[in-house]
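Exercise 3.2. Students should predict the tertiary structure of the chain below and write it as structure tokens, then compare their answer with the key that follows.

Predict this chain's 3D structure.
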Amino acid sequence: MAGGGNFLHRVISYVANELIVNGLANSPAFQRFAVRSSKRMEDLSKMAQQKRQEIANKVEDVSKNFESFKNQ
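Answer key:
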């Protein structure tokens, strides 16, 4: 009987998953949410890359200044 319950659970899970996936795929509101979320993540990634580069440049400048100060 346990095997039959497992099969039934898998069938119900599959059907529910298909309904949810199809419902979201055909939902204009969810599609707008997905596009906005994707765009926002791209923007955040670009901002993080720029900040990382700015910090690397500042560290390099500080290192050069420290070296020139140390040699005096």
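Discussion points: The chain has a mean pLDDT of 90. The CA atoms of residues 12 and 18 lie 10 Å apart.
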